[in-house]
Amino acid sequence: MADISVMWFRRDLRLADHPALRAAVDAGPDGVVPLFVLDPGDHASRVQHAYLGASLKRLSERVDGLHLVEGRPVDEVVRVARRVGADSVHVTADHEPDGSSRDDEVAQALAEHDIELVRAGSPYAVPPGRAFTGTGSRFKVFTPFYAAWREHGWPDPEPAVREVPWLDPGGSAPRPTDSDGLDHVALPAAGEEAARRRWRAFLEADLEEYDTVRDEPGADRTSRMSVHLHWGEIHPRTMLADLGRSRGAEAYRRELAFREFYADVLDRRPDSAWGYYDHAFEAMPYDDPGDELEAWKAGRTGFPIVDAGMLQLLGEGWMHNRVRMIVASFLVKDLHLEWQHGARHFAEHLVDFDLASNQHGWQWVAGCGTDASPYFRVFNPTTQGKKFDPDGTYVRRWVPALADVPAKHVHEPHTMADPPADYPRPIVDHAEERRESLRRYEALRDQP
What is the pTM of this model? Predict the structure, then answer.
């Protein structure tokens, strides 16, 4: 009998630093089937599918033909494994609520045919459920989590598996299209090699000053590695191994840890994916979504830094992190809408959409999450723009109507004697909405 295994790729589209692939090769010296299942029940957005198509193409080129099938994983994984006579199917552990349940279902279905589902590794340096407080409980606050996360540590990156007896059983489904009608979205280059190039460029040019420039959207000197991390084209261990002891490296290390903290929180509280982490905020009075929400989505609020961020989201499938906080605060505190409305819009348009990071980032701004920003901290979009984009570089890049507005007016164009005719006036009075937001919060606190 031949020793054959199946390597079921998901959000781990790489060959280097890949424990599950290593295990698949060890278990399948006579053949490893590189499998990807296109699940019709997958809720990924069109922009994510477009990027996925490009990434799968790159991976297929490196594995002598990725075996693509379409259908429910519980059906297709079992069918492929039985067809090739595999004794085991190998995966990277999935810690998201739906993914974990899916894997349990697949494992049970495989076991009925004496085939083992082997989970090895994870998308994180420290998987959820590994860092604990001194009393053995899970963390609710980032700073002590970060200390425990660093103390726990992680293994060195594994080298790429060079010799793999790839096996193509034939009959692959068409891969997702690269563009999917999204030619207006400038997606980044996909694949493991593109991820490595991007990472090396960031290390050489921007890491050392990351702690001072990361909040400046006009500088555009963040790593933009979030999409590569999301699709597993690079592992965080690989990145951590390259970080030294500079202030820039430490700031970047903390950002990687925040990703893992939010994954740990979601693992502990799966209800917080779309529900309130702090249930008290369910009683907060919110407005019904209407025209103002649509103006926010379209980048037509009349607040330049907000509109620039929303237009960058539509144009690149990505948004600078500081600006994500600004636009989120505007939706929750100025428009008085529930955070889920914004989270859904981000889920639809972010190519790097990560359930744990997105949902808990939104809840941080909304004041109802872990380590929550105090509700009374209301971002002023005008002063935020002046502070972090002082010369208006970012605003001009993304809001064509303001391209020629002088720097002193670029964050308040409505104050000009002759404001741009094709740019809207502010849809709300920020000072008034801030007072209203705080009034609602005080009413919530006064409830018995």
Answer: 0.94
